[in-house]
Specification:
By secondary structure, this protein is mainly α. The chain contains 25 helices and 9 strands. The protein has helices spanning 2-10, 19-48, 59-63, 79-87, 90-101, 106-132, 136-152, 165-177, 181-194, 196-208, 224-248, 257-260, 279-285, 306-311, 327-345, 358-387, 390-406, 427-434, 452-456, 472-489, 494-504, 518-522, 533-541, 552-555, 568-572, and strands at 54-56, 211-214, 217-220, 421-423, 441-444, 459-460, 508-512, 556-559, 563-567. Strands 6-5-7-9-8 form a 5-stranded mixed β-sheet. It has a two-stranded antiparallel sheet with strand order 1-4. A two-stranded antiparallel sheet has the order 2-3. Helix 2 (19-48) packs parallel to helix 7 and helix 20 (472-489) packs parallel to helix 23. It is elongated and about 95 Å long.
Length: 577
């Protein structure tokens, strides 16, 4: 009797319940889904608000330049700000422009935005599951697994355009199942405006839906409206993507694969780490090149059982309740893989290949895993009732339920949720620079330079976070700046230093006290990318002391434990060393 009640509560479709019971079941499981989603997000936000100078790692690239919305005179002639403004999707920029118009701080908004995105993602995930298999527990399990995987990576807290992939793509799946043409077109437009490359996956899915599998063969739709709708989708996608393509092309073209193979930036330890001599790593789990990169937690692998279960439907009676639109999951996989291999073939014209599968596979696996688990659980209920094994099934449910909820968690993993937040450690530096004129330029090889644009809204010459070797016109300038900076920082010739300052209009030079020992360069994988300048600098350090090291005491305007800020006017006044 108890098993029958559990089966009714957990795996009975709402169509087989009374209207009142169905409504209560949906409300209960949806509320539980939202509760876990909010709980995970709030756990992540504890770190976000633990200090004033905390921001998401990648947000420094996308949000820094957006302070121009408050003050158009910020970052004048700034290569880095201009570049990241050009590669920021138009829709994402509009969101922050509206926030700036409301006089809300952009960093603050980037921290609370995940709450909104998490609720929308959870809601659409639940709705998609209810359309495919009308068992409310499926929606709960899928949203739980999806929120867990989002919180195990920086796919919700990154404050970058990719945070919008999940709510929009799940909305696209929902409206596709519902055959809501208006909903599909609106979501497609938003997707193309905020994360354009996923728009290609959406279009491929719409194209595949023009065909049907009938009597063992592929049949094309005979409804002319289907083709008109697809043409409209293509037109909307083109209108949404074309302005972004034109905008981002000013620093193009993209680096070719042949050139990238010769660059240390694209190998292990480099800024991108795309290529690998390990075939498995390259094609499967490479962060930028592999098609199953960053797929976790392991519970998602239950999704791989769904095709097997569907081949043995006689043993899983609940499969009779599956909507034929379960095929949409396969269409997502096929479309994603097509774009994955296309991106590899056209490297790097369509960005990193993994971006086409990394996100969509997580959603598909979460939904498929939830369906598989529910089908298996229902079959187990039926088996236990027939064989009198109630105790066994009760124990199994308790163990599995605990495992599903407790992993991942702070009890089972060292860090959960995993957030990309970084804390600026030198507020005195940011405050000092904020008081300086808006047209100053700071040169530095220190990692702390990465925080200056976001916290001080001032221009830096270079920074590791901004060293993206994607577009040739941008990175050629960036790399030359790095080479010139390394050469000038470790030279014995004061005239070379002055020429560097004059060439790049440098106002301040930020140094780490440890910068003048060979290990500073040998252990810095970023600096090691810029050869032969890095090796030449090491050789110089082993022989003599660079001229800048002798000016620390006389030209410093600000000093902390390991940082010294030199004023270049003082350096230019030096006549000899």
């Amino acid at each position: 009797m108890l098993i029958a009640q559990l089966q009714k509560l957990l795996t009975t479709p709402i169509t087989q319940k009374s209207r009142h019971q169905s409504r209560l079941a949906v409300i209960f499981w949806y509320s539980l889904s939202i509760t876990f989603a909010v709980g995970y997000i709030l756990m992540g936000l504890r770190q976000a608000f633990s200090s004033k100078y905390i921001v998401s790692d990648d947000a420094r690239e996308y949000i820094s330049w957006m302070y121009r919305y408050f003050n158009p005179d910020l970052f004048p002639g700034d290569l880095i700000a201009d570049y990241f403004q050009s590669v920021t999707p138009i829709g994402y920029g509009i969101v922050y422009k509206i926030i700036a118009a409301l006089d809300i701080d952009l960093i603050f908004f980037s921290k609370i935005f995940p709450i909104v995105l998490g609720l929308i993602t959870t809601s659409y995930c639940f709705l998609v599951c209810m359309q495919i298999l009308p068992v409310p527990m499926v929606g709960f399990i899928a949203s739980l697994l999806l929120n867990q995987t989002l919180c195990m990576h920086d796919d919700l807290f990154s404050a970058t355009p990719r945070d919008l992939i999940y709510p929009l793509f799940l909305a696209f799946l929902y409206y596709s199942i519902r055959c809501s043409g208006l909903g599909i077109l609106i979501v497609l437009a938003l997707q193309c405006l905020t994360y354009p490359i996923i728009g290609f996956v959406n279009l491929l899915i719409l194209f595949m839906r023009l065909f049907r599998w009938q009597n063992g063969q592929i049949a094309i739709s005979q409804n002319q409206k289907d083709f008109i709708f697809f043409a409209a989708a293509m037109m909307i996608a083109a209108i949404a993507i074309l302005p972004y393509a034109i905008q981002s092309s000013q620093f193009g073209p993209a680096i070719t694969a042949a050139v990238a193979r010769t660059m240390p930036e694209y190998w292990h330890g480099g800024r991108v780490s795309y290529f690998s001599n390990n075939i498995i790593n390259y094609w499967f789990d490479g962060r930028d090149s592999g098609f199953i990169a960053l797929i976790s937690p392991p519970q998602l692998l239950f999704g791989l059982l769904l095709p097997i279960i569907l081949r043995f439907q006689s043993h899983f009676l609940l499969t009779k309740q599956l909507n034929d639109e379960v095929k949409l999951l396969l269409q997502v996989v096929i479309a994603s893989l097509i774009m994955f291999f296309t991106a590899h073939a056209l490297a790097f014209q369509l960005h990193w290949p993994s971006r086409y599968t990394h996100h969509t596979f997580k959603m598909v696996l979460a939904i498929a895993a939830a369906i598989s688990i529910t089908l298996i659980l229902d079959a187990t209920f039926r088996w236990s009732r027939q064989n009198g094994r109630e105790i066994l099934i009760l124990g199994t449910i308790m163990i599995f339920g605990a495992a599903l909820i407790l992993y991942p968690s702070s009890f089972t993993l060292k860090v959960f949720p995993k957030t990309p937040y970084l804390e600026g450690k030198v507020p005195t530096l940011y405050n000092f620079l904020q008081k300086q004129p808006q047209n100053i330029v700071i040169a530095s090889t220190s990692g702390e330079a990465d925080n200056i644009p976001i916290f001080a809204q001032r221009t830096i010459l270079v920074g590791k976070e901004y060293a993206l070797p994607i577009h040739t016109k941008y990175y050629a300038q960036f790399r030359q700046r790095m080479v010139d900076l390394i050469n000038a920082q470790y030279t014995e010739d004061i005239n070379q230093v002055k020429e560097f300052i004059q060439k790049y209009h440098v106002t301040f030079w930020l140094l780490e006290r440890s910068a003048f020992i060979p290990e500073y360069i040998t252990k810095n994988t970023w600096l090691q990318q810029y050869q032969p300048a890095a090796e030449q600098a090491i050789a110089k350090l082993q022989k003599t002391l660079p001229v800048l090291a002798t000016l620390i005491n006389s030209c410093a305007v600000l000093q902390t434990d390991n940082l010294v800020l030199l004023k270049t006017e003082c350096i230019k006044a030096v006549t000899k060393t």
